[in-house]
Design brief:
This protein has 18 helices and 39 strands. It has 780 residues and is an alpha/beta fold.
């Protein structure tokens, strides 16, 4: 491999200073040369600058470990435990007089450098990590950990020595907030798994874990003053999310509800669990030792049904339940509400971090307008709408949080009104693109977690990893002076369909590592990242992470042929083998193994299963092979460019449910895209016309949408991308003769998100957007 050298400095002064440091290093390392034959360095997230040289440091029983500076001791102890648990020898933190000068690891706190930065220097005689704080020192240890072979993660104590390449690494993070969110309300996760997840975050230099502790489906945090919140609110009769998981569990055990979270109550099966305050102290302590801050979320005033079920008087109508989309929220116009909120938020003492997240999202405010107290409050202040009540609530709660010595975070709905600029905005509504710029212009700090990239509960596909990696956290419409208000990013894991650690592993890894690099590294290279990540698979195997296996490259899910087709699969690195069936059944580890190309001469469906380390089941694919004749064109001479677009205002779960009575507008458009006029939150579109095919052949269309869409050409359904989902690309093929073919595309947006595009490829045509000139309608 090539030795990697990446240096990114924004100022000439920094470049000059770095030159001096590098010259000193080269003088000190004059026994080494840059070497392409050395051990590979594949660090994620990629450091600011890496230099690799000939030679190696041998870590064995001779190695001494020293800490310099009070804050360094805890980090050194962590490193000693990491090495000792995997090695046949023990290593301990020693004083300077016991140090082996010719074979040592030194961790040292120094007085210079940015927060969380570090320098790692490895020679044949010494490993030295220096940093201005314990956070930076800990990050340097994680880099060293990644430079060790993956067996460092195996606690079998069998390794006698470790080889580490001679190198110089300088590093610092791009963003202060690098977080992951975990919803433990929809489905619950044990304290032990939370600790395991924290270890994973530490490995990739995250520094925040946002725990979504309360929601409609479960209250997961013990509140001493209100024991009903967990006695009743932490348990539920199996709901529709549980049922959906159990349906999937028939073929994939990752969806099975863990027995430890099930109990029988009066003959009824209940699901649930909660964290005691001692559990929280355990989690917080474990995270603190790994320099990760736990950010608790108590979601108010909406998403409170688990609490309202015990305290219906908290609402404006003295009852809970569901409205059209969301549950009845607590009332912002009664002082008893703020007494309750204040008592609940006293748990802030359990969390030493500076932030408390109060949610404030997806609030059905209709019940507020039925309340006399709210009507009086509106009249008293001259307010006109419930949005002003929402802002009033957020500002009142912010004062409670501030009095507890904390800072408030809220989801980006809070900028729909006007709230105190001290509140940090967490941006999630990817379809409200102006929200981040509006927030920073008002003085808010912003954390980016949009649905478009950072919702890890959205089903991953072969494009997901690159999509995450190429995310730019700073929106283009944020002015330069305000860019510093974008303090970081995080991904959100909502667990409606994630009931187990194995399923969570699949949904988060490897894209969590792409997020880590976006949050840490100032310059990114997708091809380089793709190469580095392959060297982490064995580490994840050692850590027992059930990550999503690499995709089969170039795989098409719908293959059309005239005479016959050949299924020729490339097995990617990280996949041990591929199993398949042709009888419609789901393949398992005992299905036919793919060993050579398969000739197919009739329409059939092939189902694939990839296997990973120790034959672990991985990704499932369905390939539809379809034998077709060329679809013949129609004749039509009176034509003009364009498509007919019909706009429907309504809420749908499928394009098949679009109602003609919801039709609001018919127009002729010159491009296939979502119109730019003011659209409802939920709507549907139908595009009709003709597509002009220049040459006979097999054409592949690629339809991307958020939510559902379908494409039909002539009488053939080419692509079915229907249903609720995040942005997802689905491909399909069709055999087309030269000429004009009827074209129909249907799309619905279920509320939140939004996105639609269509590309194609064919004889002599590489994958590209379809030229607008190919779309025709009758000129009558």
């Amino acid at each position: 491999m090539k030795a990697r050298f990446k240096l990114h400095y924004p100022h000439l002064l920094n470049q000059f200073l770095f030159g001096i440091v590098l010259i000193v290093l080269l003088v000190q390392c004059n026994d080494y040369k840059t070497n392409s034959e050395n051990l590979n360095i594949a660090i994620i997230p990629h450091p600011v600058q890496v230099e690799q040289y000939d030679g190696e440091f041998i870590l064995d029983q001779r190695t001494s470990l020293q800490s310099i500076g009070g804050e360094a001791t805890a980090v050194a102890t962590y490193l000693a435990k990491l090495i000792s648990e995997a090695s046949s020898f023990d290593i301990t933190v020693q004083s300077n007089k016991d140090k082996n000068e010719n074979h040592s690891i030194v961790l040292e706190i120094i007085d210079s450098g940015r927060k969380e930065s570090y320098v790692l220097k490895i020679t044949p005689k010494e490993i030295r990590i220096t940093a201005p704080d314990s956070e930076g020192l800990f990050h340097g240890v994680q880099t060293l950990r990644q430079m060790l072979p993956s067996t460092i993660e195996n606690k079998n104590k069998s390794t006698n020595a470790w080889r580490i390449p001679v190198a110089f690494i300088r590093d610092e993070p791009a963003y202060a907030w690098r977080g992951m969110h975990l919803d433990v309300s929809r489905h619950f996760f044990s304290v032990e798994f939370i600790k395991t997840f924290i270890d994973r975050l530490a490995l990739y230099k995250f520094n925040r874990l946002h725990l979504h502790l309360t929601d409609d489906q479960g209250w997961r945090l013990q509140i001493n003053q209100y024991p009903q919140l967990t006695e009743h609110g932490a348990w539920r009769i199996l709901n529709n999310q549980d049922s959906a998981c159990l349906k999937q569990a028939v073929i994939n055990n990752d969806f099975a509800l863990p027995e430890e979270f099930l109990k029988d109550k009066n003959g009824v099966k209940m699901y649930g669990g909660y964290y005691t305050q001692d559990d929280i102290r355990t989690i917080v302590s474990y995270a603190t030792d790994r320099h990760i801050t736990i950010v608790p979320e108590i979601d108010i005033p909406g998403h409170m049904n688990a609490a309202v079920s015990s305290f219906p008087e908290l609402t404006c109508v003295d009852e809970g339940g569901w409205g059209k989309l969301f549950t009845v929220p607590i009332c912002p116009c009664e002082e008893t509400t703020y007494e309750f909120v204040g008592n609940v938020l006293e748990v802030a003492v359990l969390f030493p971090g500076e932030y408390i997240h109060i949610g404030a999202d997806e609030v059905d405010e209709s019940s507020w307008l039925k309340s006399k107290s709210c009507k009086d409050l509106l009249k008293k202040n001259g307010w006109k709408s419930s949005k002003e009540l929402h802002s009033y609530f957020v500002n009142r709660v912010n004062k409670i949080v501030t009095n507890l010595g904390k800072k408030t975070i809220g989801w980006d709905e809070i900028v729909d009104g006007v709230v105190d600029s001290s509140i940090t905005v967490m941006y999630w509504r990817g379809w409200v693109s102006k929200a981040p710029a509006l927030a920073v212009s008002r003085g808010h700090d912003v954390i980016m977690s949009p649905t478009s990239h950072c919702y890890f509960d959205y089903e991953p596909d072969d494009k997901t990893l690159e999509r995450m990696y190429t995310f730019n956290p700073v929106p283009v419409d944020v002015a330069d002076p305000d860019k510093k208000k974008i303090i970081g990013l995080q991904a959100n894991i909502w667990t409606e369909m994630i009931p187990t650690p194995s399923r969570l592993d699949y949904m988060t890894m490897p894209r969590m590592t792409a997020l880590a690099e976006v949050g840490w590294s100032t310059a990114k290279d997708w091809e380089d990242f793709s190469s580095r990540i392959t060297q982490h698979y064995s580490r994840w195997d050692e850590l027992n992470i059930k990550y999503r296996l690499p995709d089969i490259p170039g795989l098409k899910k719908h293959i059309v042929f005239i005479d016959s087709a050949l299924m020729d699969l490339k097995i990617p690195e990280g996949v041990s083998e591929i199993r398949y069936t042709v009888d419609g059944t789901a393949p398992d580890v005992n299905a036919t193994v793919f060993t050579q190309p398969l000739r197919i001469d009739s329409s059939m469906t092939v189902k694939l299963l990839t296997l990973g380390f120790k034959r672990r089941p991985g990704n499932r694919y369905t390939i539809r092979f379809e034998k077709q004749d060329y679809l013949q064109p129609i004749r039509n001479t009176a034509l003009k460019n364009g498509l007919t677009c019909r706009y429907f205002d309504g809420s749908y779960s499928s394009v098949s449910k679009i109602k003609s009575g919801d039709l609001k507008k018919v127009m002729v458009v010159d491009t296939l895209a979502i119109p730019t006029f003011n659209l409802a939150n939920a709507f549907a579109l139908e595009f009709d016309g003709l597509i002009d095919i220049a040459k006979e052949g097999i054409y592949t269309f690629y339809l991307s949408s958020d939510d559902g869409s379908t494409l039909q050409i002539g009488d053939r359904l080419v692509i079915d991308n229907d249903g609720y989902h995040g942005n997802r690309e689905v491909g399909g093929q069709v055999a087309l003769a030269k000429g004009l073919h009827p074209f129909k595309l249907k799309y619905f947006e279920g509320g939140g998100g939004g996105g639609l595009s269509l590309m194609y490829e064919g004889p002599g045509i590489i994958k590209q957007n379809i030229p607008n000139t190919l779309f025709k309608i009758s000129d009558n």
